[in-house]
Amino acid sequence: MGKRTAGIHHITAIVGNPQENVDFYAGVLGLRLVKRTINFDDPGTYHLYFGDEAGKPGTIITFFPWPDAYRGKIGDGQVGVTTYAVPKGAMSFWENRLEKFQIPFTKTMRFGEDILAFDDPHGLHLEIVERVEGEKNTWEFGDVTADVAIKGFGGATLLSSQPEKTAELLEKEFGLVRVGEEGDFLRFQSPSDIGNVIDLKRTASGARGKMGAGIVHHIAMRAKDGQDQLEWRGQLAKHGYHITPVKDRNYFTSVYFREHGEILFEIATDPPGFSLDESPDTMGERLMLPEWYEPQRQKIESVLLPIEPRKLD
């Protein structure tokens, strides 16, 4: 058997006002703001990371919040839906919580699983599904306790302009196993217990998505370490994918490529992780800058809007 990824490392999206972003993912969904830093390619913009207590791969959603961003458009070449996994028996809590905060939702079923579908304040499509697999998230915030807290990603739904090519990437390059077909969806699974499911819509819409607020920018798959990442890079390049050099993101290293269905993928290393530059107990409390931006701290902080995780219950 060839190389196999453990699954999703993180998902990165574009949103609007940063405090609205923090209020929703921390205040409503109960995730931990594990890192507040900047977009290394655009230092006047936050890069915010939310996940479980430790910020483990498979739990992290990250955001570039641009207060004046235009609303994007969902379409081919994108991650259409981001799915979160919660413990068995927690669905009624999440229905009540969304109602409490007046967040519209719909209930549906896919591959035998009940799904709660809703949008964040900036239009990002989200789902909640109950799963037995995956460790409980011990982070508690407001009324979100460990018994009901989001464990991490249940998975993601991909919208491809060439679904057959994307399916080939998932199986032959990433080593995911095709485990089901239902209606217009194919389901693929990795060996991990979190961030392990990819659903692929197998009919292209013919309408290309447009980047903007409420749109996933890219999806990152996991590499065990730097050597594993280099092996992935070599394999993909050998098979005709145009892949970037390794980029240092401080908390992991990354390579990027756009596959034939136009979806932007990243391969990110599990180490070194988010406690690299601050204590696990205080992660996310202070703006952290890579050393090459530290001399510009005063200027950067003067541009960024203030944010704070708030208990909204």
TrEMBL record:
Q: For this UniProt record, give its keywords in alphabetical order, as a comma-separated list.
A: Dioxygenase, Oxidoreductase
One GO MF term attached to the UniProt entry: dioxygenase activity
Q: SUPFAM superfamilies from the xrefs?
A: Glyoxalase/Bleomycin resistance protein/Dihydroxybiphenyl dioxygenase
**Matching InterPro entries:** Extradiol_RC_dioxygenase (IPR052537), Glyas_Bleomycin-R_OHBP_Dase (IPR029068), Glyas_Fos-R_dOase_dom (IPR004360), VOC_core (IPR037523)
Q: Which Pfam families match?
A: Glyoxalase
Keyword Isomerase listed? The answer is no
Gene3D superfamilies on file:
2,3-Dihydroxybiphenyl 1,2-Dioxygenase, domain 1
Q: Where is the VOC domain?
A: 7-131, 152-270
Q: Which PANTHER family match?
A: RING-CLEAVING DIOXYGENASE MHQE-RELATED
Q: What is this protein called?
A: Ring-cleaving dioxygenase
Q: Which organism is it from?
A: Heyndrickxia acidicola
